[in-house]
Structures are given as structure tokens and as C-alpha cells.
């Protein structure tokens, strides 16, 4: 029995935990594809449209919301972020694993829309280390950093909604753990097979 459809992986965690780096390492495997989200925020230095995000206007984003073209979307710090649904589903049908790098709010939306999705939470070693990483990026004001730290505490409270937890105190080790999770999930017995076994057992009892 073969299972050719890909799996959807959601990788979440506070901003600055290294989610993007882990996703980049995972997508070096040709079986794994990164889902590029759509956002209304402005590009950061070095970012390219269609690589980190699809950068669109607020009007275009809301048009996609009305068309039902998002698997999930959320407003974060006065900007919208969303995952184009049709692109994800097409990749899964082709047998590719799709990785989403989204916040916890978006991750929980995906869990409701696609219960079979696998949710992985990336945690910093400490909040002090997280602050240091955010300040080291030198891309945000102190006020925004404080907002992100406050949001991080609220996100950490939702770890129980996720399937797996990885503490990222070493990016290579953290990425290896994420890859191990994906390997284990590839070996999971599909629910369809479980249903066939139960049906077979019921038929045997009826004979």
C-alpha cells in the first residue's frame, strides 16, 4: 500500500526563534517545498517578491479573502498574512510535503481547516536569548520588539495545541529534529488503512 499524497507541516513560534532558517534547511530536500505566504507588509532589505512573501496591497489581499483563496490568514501588527489555499493543495496532490512558516494564530486556523496537518512549535532557549536575537536583526524599533516579546509569551501558552516542540539552541540540531519528525510522519499508518483493517475485522466477525 503506497501513500503518495504529501503532508502539510506548520512550523510556528515567536518571531526570532529561527523558524525561517529551519525551513530553509528542510527545503533542501527536494520532497519538501516551502509555501510562500501573501502579505501586505513592506519588503525588508534583501527580500524578493515571490521568494520570502508575495507582497500585495491591502485591497488585493482582501479581494483574495472574499474569494476564499486562503487556507489561513491573520492580521499581525497592522499587516495581513495569508496562505494561498490552491497552491498548497496542488503541491500536496503532486506528492510533495508543504511547509508553512506561520504564526500560532495561523497555525491553529490550519488545524481547523486541515486536521491532518502536522504542527511543530519552535521555542527559543530563553526569552533573554529571544530579545537578543530580535535586537540583533536591527530591523525594528524598540517598541515593536517589546510587542513581539509580549506576543511571544502569549504564543508559548498555546504550545499544547501543537504536535511537536523543538527548542532551537542550535540551528543544525533543531533542523535535524524537525527532519526526524517528518521521517516519522512518513512512516505513520494512514487513517485509510486503519479503516480498511476495522472493516475487515467486522466482516470476519459477521462470517
> How many extended strands?
9
Record the strand order, biggest sheet: 2-7-1-8-9
Q: At the first level of CATH, what is the class of the domain at 8-35 and 97-206? A: Alpha Beta
**Proportion of beta-strand residues:** 15-25%
- C-alpha Rg (nearest Å): 19 Å
Please bin the fraction of helical residues.
Answer: 40-55%
Report on this model:
This protein starts with 7 loop residues before the first strand and ends with a helix. It has eight helices and nine strands. It has helices spanning 19-26, 58-66, 85-93, 104-113, 127-137, 142-156, 171-186, 191-206, and strands at 8-12, 32-34, 37-39, 53-55, 70-76, 79-84, 97-101, 118-123, 164-167. It has a domain at 8-35 and 97-206: P-loop containing nucleotide triphosphate hydrolases (Rossmann fold, 3-Layer(aba) Sandwich), CATH 3.40.50. The protein is α/β, with parallel strands linked by helices and 207 residues long. The chain is 45% helix and 20% strand.
Protein topology:
Elements: E1 8-12, H1 19-26, E2 32-34, E3 37-39, E4 53-55, H2 58-66, E5 70-76, E6 79-84, H3 85-93, E7 97-101, H4 104-113, E8 118-123, H5 127-137, H6 142-156, E9 164-167, H7 171-186, H8 191-206
Parallel strand pairs: 1-7, 1-8, 2-7, 3-4, 8-9
Antiparallel strand pairs: 3-6, 5-6
Helix pairs in contact: 1-7
Amino acid at each position: 500500500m503506497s501513500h503518495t499524497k504529501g503532508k502539510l507541516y506548520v512550523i510556528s513560534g515567536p518571531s526570532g526563534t529561527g523558524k525561517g532558517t529551519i525551513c530553509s534547511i528542510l527545503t533542501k530536500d527536494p520532497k519538501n517545498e516551502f509555501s510562500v505566504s501573501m502579505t501586505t507588509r513592506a519588503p525588508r532589505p534583501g527580500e524578493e517578491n515571490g521568494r520570502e512573501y508575495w507582497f500585495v496591497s491591502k485591497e488585493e489581499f482582501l479581494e483574495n479573502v472574499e474569494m476564499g483563496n486562503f487556507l489561513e490568514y491573520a492580521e499581525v501588527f497592522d499587516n495581513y498574512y495569508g496562505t494561498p489555499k490552491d497552491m498548497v493543495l496542488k503541491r500536496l496532490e503532486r506528492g510533495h510535503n508543504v511547509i508553512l512558516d506561520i504564526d500560532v494564530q495561523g497555525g491553529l486556523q490550519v488545524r481547523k481547516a486541515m486536521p491532518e496537518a502536522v504542527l511543530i512549535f519552535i521555542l527559543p532557549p530563553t526569552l533573554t536569548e529571544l530579545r537578543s536575537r530580535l535586537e540583533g536583526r536591527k530591523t525594528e524599533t524598540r517598541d515593536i520588539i517589546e510587542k513581539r516579546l509580549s506576543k511571544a509569551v502569549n504564543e508559548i501558552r498555546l504550545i499544547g495545541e501543537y504536535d511537536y516542540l523543538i527548542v532551537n539552541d542550535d540551528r543544525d540540531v533543531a533542523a535535524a529534529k524537525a527532519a526526524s519528525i517528518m521521517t516519522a510522519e512518513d512512516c505513520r499508518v494512514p487513517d485509510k488503512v486503519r479503516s480498511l483493517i476495522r472493516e475487515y475485522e467486522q466482516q470476519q466477525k459477521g462470517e
